[in-house]
Amino acid sequence: MNIRKFLIIILILIISIVSISNFKIYKNYAYDEYVDYVDGNNLYTFKYPKRMKIDKSLGNIKTVVYDKDMKIEIYHDDFKDNISSSLSYINYSNKFANNKNHIIELDKNLKINNMKVHLLKWRRKKLSKVKNDKNYYVSAEFIKSETEAYTIIIKSSKALKHPRQYIKIIGSFKVISDNKDLRTCDTLENKNLNEETMLFYKKYFLKNDELKWGIFENTAPESFDFLNSLEKKLDYTFKFLVKYQSFSSEGFPMREMLNAYNNDRFVLLTLQTMHLDNKDNTTIMYSILDGKYDDFLNDYAKKIKEFNHPVMFRLNNEMNGDWCTYSSYYYSKDTDIFKDVYKYVYKIFKSNKVENVLWVWNPHDNSFPDFKWNNYLNYYPGDEYVDIIGLTGYNAGTYYEGEKWRNFNEIYVPLYNEYIRNFNKPFMITEFGCNSVGGDKVNWMNEMFSNIKYFKNIKVAIWWNGIDWDQNMNPARTYRLDENEKTIEAFREGLKKYE
Question: Is 318 designated active site?
Answer without folding.
Answer: yes
